[in-house]
Specification:
It is a single chain. By secondary structure, the protein is of the alpha+beta class. Helix content is 44%, strand content 17%. It has a five-stranded antiparallel beta sheet with strand order 3-2-1-4-7. Strands 5-6 form a two-stranded antiparallel sheet. A hairpin with a 2-residue loop joins β2 and β3.
Length: 327
Amino acid sequence: MSEYKTVQELKQLDADMAVPFRSLFILRRKTLKTAKNGNPFLSVELGDAKGAFTANCFGDSAVFAAFEHITEGAIVRVSGKTEYFQERFSPRLQAAEEVGPDDEDAQSMLSLLIEVPPESPDELWGHIEAAIAEIGHAQLRDTVQRVMDALGERFRTGTAAISMHHAYRHGLLEHTTHMVRAARALLPLYPEVDADLAIAGILLHDIGKLEEYEGDFSAKVSRIGTLQGHVVLGFRTARKAAIQSKLNGDLTERLEHIILSHQGEKEWGAAAMAATPEAVFVSMIDNLDAKMGMVQRALRNTAEGEPFSEYLGGLKTRVLLTPPNKD
């Protein structure tokens, strides 16, 4: 058994005891804050393939000085003692150092550090390729294919979010595949929705996230992502491909509208409210899979025996994890 403890293993230790530990984690986020007494401290989010936690490092500590010089996305070796604050796991960190991905310990634990979907990327990508091939309208199909020819390798590995849903390697691929599957099941119920346009919209709805986010082991918002956001970036990508594919003006406008409105509400980042049957359809499926993705991740990553997940901001609640009693 490795001397390094995973997030799940740490959370399963006796909560009433301060247990010393050593671990390897990815620094997902660090934020400089100011305490009530005016002193600075760092709030750091550390995680591995099965979970994450936040810890505070105060300005007069050696661990604060260490994290000051470590960039987000780095692999770090930490030591400390387990501790809880307001029933949330928040260990007291005592030491931290960055290690390279070629470090012997990091190499042996890489599969435990990087979160990925349960399904293989190859299987998920196969669904995407099949969905493109099944688009009947030639210019619409060519529009999507042009985008995937240019961005497919990044699409296969990219995250769907920073923290909310499918926020891990291959997450965008998984999210889009699940949306395609849901659409195929629901399209027979809604004959008013054009299937070609809806599937094309699903395949391209989040394509702007490939420019919005950057980073290998941990995603952060890029400069252009901050200035424009994935909705606008996706709109631009789709428009360029549509022009090259000689897609007619009406279909181009409708495809762009799906991308511009898929966030559902303007306060959530939509540039317009969904105003076509296909846009409403895609927006609702996007919302469904985003929320169910949060549930699925909680079911996968919460330590065995825990009845509830931690609080999920996207759902504004904790999730009950025990299956229904059908006796």
